[in-house]
Amino acid sequence: NNTEWSVYSERSTTGAVTAFLKEINQSETRLSGPQIFGLDIGVLHQYRLKTSPTTSKKRPLSLIQTKSGQNKRLAAFGKDSERELSSLIKKHHMTT
Fold first, then answer.
1. Distance CA 61, CA 64 (A)
2. Which tens digit of pLDDT belongs to each residue from 7-24?
3. Where are the domains of the chain?
């Protein structure tokens, strides 16, 4: 059988492997890109440690025009604030 497949993923090598497994009807199989392509995990890990975290691509609140969009942003801010404050409260033993 001389069948050829061309699969593509901009996200990761594992994404490419997953796409290939779907093509051959083996989507339940668990394989990762590094396993298949033999990537050096140590080098990849060091590279990831060196890269700076991505900056937020969120638009300023003043540019969000819909009320629902503004409400979602404020709700997310509230959740983040609670998470940060909870850890600070525990860290400084501010509970009764």
1. 5
2. 778 878 778 888 877 877
3. 1-42, 61-91
